[in-house]
Structures are given as structure tokens and as C-alpha cells.
Amino acid sequence: MAEAGAQRSYRAPCPGCGAPVEFRSAQSAYAVCPYCQSTVARQGETLARIGKMAELFDDFSPLQLFASGRIDDQPFTLVGRLQYSYPGGRWTEWIAALDGERSGILSEDNGAYVFALPFVPQRPAPPAGELRVGATTAFNGIGYTVASSEQVALVSAQGELPRLPELGRPFAVVELRNDQGEVLSLDYDTSPPGAWLGRSVRLEDLQLTGLRDESAKEEKGRSFNCPNCGSPVTVNLADSRSITCPACNSIIDLTQGIGGELRHAEQHEPVRPLIALGSIGQLQGAEWQVVGFQHRMGVAPGDDEHFGWSEYLLFNKKRGFSFLVDAEDGWSLVKPTTGAPTMAENGLRASYLGKTYQQQYAYDAETDYVAGEFYWQVERGQKSFNRDFANGAALLSMERTATELSWSSGNRIDSATVAAAFRLDARKDMFKRSDVLPVSAASSLGCGTIVLIVVVIVVLLIILSTCSSRGGTGGSRSSGGSYGGYSSGGGHK
Questions:
Q1: How would residue 109 be classed by pLDDT, with cut points 50, 70 and 90?
Q2: What is the SS3 assignment for 311-362?
Q3: Which domains does the chain have, with CATH numbers?
């Protein structure tokens, strides 16, 4: 017998096994039986079995069904989960029941989270093939940049769902972003395509309760033997796409899983990171673990002078991934942007979230060494064209490859803060860079020396300004490195 409760819930026996299947949201048309995995459709006061759902893959998310929180001071409950795959990886969308009449989506964006609500375009969305990555278009009077276009497929689902793409059937998902940090997703599994507009959120700001009990969850990694040397390798992050062997430093491609033949590339002349892999540090009020490291080289177009820098991939379960960048001109902490900054045609300025940044450097970059785990498929020799922008201590970085345009944003960070964060105060002198002159050193200089330094700086600025005006591309990177890290995709991915 069906039951209608005070919360407008609906319960009926599963047509597959007879166990109770409950609908808490009036927007839910489908559900997956938690006992027999039958996929059921609600038809009035009865349920009809329409298939069987595949098992969930463990995404190690802190979220789970029936976790509750608040968004814009409105309560919501997670009632369903959709798991998708695409050539570059996989991701999860959580269905959030807002007030019984509306549903939202809480999805993961490169380890961060995006909360989206249904969006009604004032004009029909064009075919997915017409929305090419990097192109700009407008919806409802707002300009967007196409950030990704992927063929995706549903691989599993759980709970109750307002929509249910056909299991395993590929369809297009296009994501567009703007300089206000918004993500517009177009899902072409229906006609017209479903549209969702969202922005980045932090789990701690959602006031979530009912999260997974971390103490009860096994943290066992997936282990296999290195295809090059046979040494044991353990994958700890659920969505790692590349990992290095701790014994022989080979880069191992995990995009096809670890059960089959593994492609690998050998690395020689290893680079020793200043902060060891696995280290835990406190930065910006959160605990971060170093899970990956890469060293990169750069050269300005038309210049023979090369420079290098290091990037540490940091992971926090609730904040996702960030990059701690160690360059000759200072340290910075950045993360992939949710939106797409607007860049001037000449590349000398970029704007994002109401702030304008000036270009500092433009250069070609190449990865020459990697270690640890990465959520994208990293390899030696990966090339990109980079632009670094700054507004005081605030930083913005663009990376363009043949297939992707990605952005990162963040801030400069003092070297002493970095050393203290990872409890390496005894080695803090090794963290010092040329970005800040120590106060003690400045106080010991005579007035004449200070004046001379100022004169030299002014002369250098004039020279650099002249070179810049001739080149027409902004600054050319002569020292230091990229402010930004690598971003691998859209708001769902």
C-alpha cells in the first residue's frame, strides 16, 4: 500500500523484490531499489520495473544519500546519485531536493563542488557540435565561453532521480563558463537539452549533516605491480589518471584502469621535491596533503633563456585539489577556476569576478618530471602556452593546449608561511625566494645602497617596458614560473 507522509513522501513496494521504495521529492520520476538494484519508474500510484542498475563505483566522496544542508539559506536533502564516465575520467552528480517542488544538482568540479539549479534558456540551445571549445556565445543576455564538450555515459545510479539517461548510451554534455564564476551545463540526453546553471561552493559552507562516517570507511588503496620494474604501486585517490612508481619513477597511465595492460614511460634524473610526497600541511584554514609533484620548464617566444618551477598538487577531502607553486619569484597557492575569465584580444588584460588583472608573462611551458598521483593524465613532454596575470598579490593564470583552455586563480604566499605549514621551519632558508627582501636585510643597507637599488629597478622597468611594446605580447618570462596549475575539464568533471 502506498503511503503519503507529511513531507509529501510516497512509498510503494518494489516491483522487483517487494522491498519498500520511497520517493521524498515530487520532482522524482525514477528510483533505484536499494535492495535489488531494480530501476523503477513512478506511474501514478504504482511502480514499474524498467531494468536493473549497475553497481556503484566507490568515489570516496564524503557525501551520501539523505545528507542535509543549506544553500542560500534554503534547506536541501541529497536524495539521489548519478555516476557518469567520459574519456577523461568520471564524476558524480548528487540530486538535491530543495523544498519538495524543486531539485538541484551538487556535482564535483576537479575535486571542488558546484551547486546548480535548472536553467531555462530564452532561445533554443544549438546542437552540441556547434559549441566548440574556446568559442563564446550568449544565453539570456549573459556571455559564456565553451569550456568543455564531451561524450559521456551513465554508468550507475542510486536513490530517486528526476531524470534518468539510458544506461551506457553516450550523449553530449557541453559546459560553458563566464567571468562571474558561473557554470552552464547542457545535457543532450533529451531534446531540448537539459540546462543547469551553478557556481562553486565549499562543503563546509553548506552546513552539511549526515556525511559518511570517515572512521567506518576503509581507506585501502588499489595495488598492482609496476609494469616496468615489478615493484608494488598503490593508488590512493579514487579518480587518479596517472601515477609514478616509487621505485623506478616510471609514469603509469591509469586511464584504462589497473586490471589490464598498463602503459608506462620511464623517467631518468629524478627531481627531488623540497616538500616530500605525503606531507600534511595547514594552509588557508585547511589541512592539505601533497599527493603529486611536477617540475616544469618555460621559455618566452623568440627567447633562448629557459626557466623552471615546481608545482605541488594538494588534496583536501572537502576542498578538492589546489596547487602550491614554487617559482623563483615566490610561492603561490592557486586552484582551477570554476568560471572562465574574460581576456582582452591582445592578451594584456584579463578580468574575473569583478577584478582586472594585468599580464606579467607569456611563455611556452613543458613538463619535464612528475611524481605521485594526478587526477589528469600527466606525462613528460606535455606542452602548453601560458599567460600569467596579476593584481597585487592576486594571481590569474591561463594555459592553452591543442584541446583545452584552462584557468587557475589564487594568491602569493610568504615563503616562511609555506615552511611553517609543513613543519619545515628548520629548513625555512631553503624556501626563500626573490619575491620579498627580508626586513633585516633592508634595515642593514645604507641609504645610498637603497637609492642605487631603486635606480637600477627603474632602469630595468624602462627596458622591460620597451621590449614589451615592441613584442606586443605583454611580458616575457625571464625567471620564476607559472602561477597556475593544470585544470582538466568542466563543472561536472
A1: low
A2: EEEEEECCCEEEEEEEECCEEEEEEECCCCCEECCCCCEEEECCEEEEEEEE
A3: 3-52 (2.20.28), 68-214 (no CATH), 271-493 (no CATH)
